[in-house]
Amino acid sequence: MKPENVLVLPGWQGSGPEHWQSRWERKYGYRRVEQHDWQRPLRGDWIARLEDQLLACDEPAVLVAHSLGCIQLAWWAAHSRNTGRVTAALLVAPPELARPDLAAQLPGWLPIAHQPLPFKSLLVASSDDAYGSLDHARELARQWGSRLHELGPCGHINAESKLGDWPEGHALLQALLKD
């Protein structure tokens, strides 16, 4: 797998420089799927951008999604004719968008796609994520056909979680690719 074919899907507001996704981009050469507007995400725009980036890859890609990027990935997979261009996906800390506080901040993202993903996937969840409960993550893993890895208390698994390069997460990705 070429590093440039590992596509990073940040969540709402993007991933800052200390987020493990940004660190992985610098350390391993993975490529971010940039969005036109990180502050006011439009589901259709985000999905179209992912489609464009996947079609630009010269071989099948691996997707590494965090937070709203997980919801983006599921919507893309439910509607694209190009899902065969993805070999695997790592889904980290999907938010519980049906919560009133999140639904108000992210209009147009509900309902989320609940279909099984057509490629292997691993969902990583924290036991104390402020944006989504562990029960919610378990249910999404079941619906999406993803294996579930419960990380323990790590918050939203973002820069505030103080994971640094998050070597455990990268080992999970590598194991997923070897399956």
Textual characterization of the structure:
The protein is of the alpha/beta class and 179 residues long. The chain has a single domain (3-178), classed as Rossmann fold (3-Layer(aba) Sandwich), CATH 3.40.50. The chain is 36% helix and 18% strand. It has helices at residues 20-28, 43-56, 68-79, 100-105, 134-144, 167-178; strands at 6-9, 31-32, 61-66, 86-92, 120-126, 147-152. It has a 6-stranded parallel β-sheet with strand order 2-1-3-4-5-6, sandwiched between helices.
From the helix content, strand content and strand pairing, which structural class follows?
alpha/beta
Report the major sheet. Answer: 6 strands, parallel
**Global outline:** globular
Number of strands: 6
Distinct helical segment count: 6
CATH domain class: Alpha Beta
Order of helices and strands: EHEHEHEHEHEH
Main β-sheet, spatial strand arrangement: 2-1-3-4-5-6
First-last Cα distance: 14 Å
Helix content: 25-40%
Mean pLDDT: 97
Q: In angstroms, what is the radius of gyration? A: 15 Å
Total number of domains: 1
The appropriate CATH architecture is 3-Layer(aba) Sandwich
CATH superfamily: Alpha/Beta hydrolase fold, catalytic domain
**CATH fold group:** Rossmann fold
- Poorly predicted tracts of residues: none
Give the amount of beta strand, in percent.
Answer: 15-25%
